[in-house]
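Q: What structure does this chain adopt?
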Amino acid sequence: MLLGKKRKLGRNIEEIQAGEKLEMSETIEDKDLLLYLGLTNDNNPLFIQHDYASMTPFKRPIVPQILLTGMITAAVSKYLPGPGSSIKKQSLSFPKPVYHYGKVNFLFEVTEIDQSAHSIIMKVEGKNEKNELVIKGDLEICPPYPPKSITSNTLENF
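A:
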């Protein structure tokens, strides 16, 4: 916890417009897979065993879909709308697998803004190096709320 240190928040709902886009790329490296597998204790052989994966239609180990989902949530938290935002609802599909050491090119687009619900709707697509769709979905996001002034009832950073 960082007491006494202010953190920059992302954009609030009034600063976001429908049609805004964010493009980013992520390459899946060994460290990403090892951190995920160590954190979750997920030992699915399809994710880690080359001999098993070679006997499946995938032919080689694939990246866990939840790791790809984490990349999406990280983009929301870091860039659009940014720090202080939260995903309220998501619907994702993974039409093709992503393989170890693969690169995913993400495209996020704000499609709707609902001021009364304090939420924005975004579409997300991810494509691999062959430009094949590997992730498709919709997100409902709560952008950061503007900070309220400090009073005797509140403490900074809480």
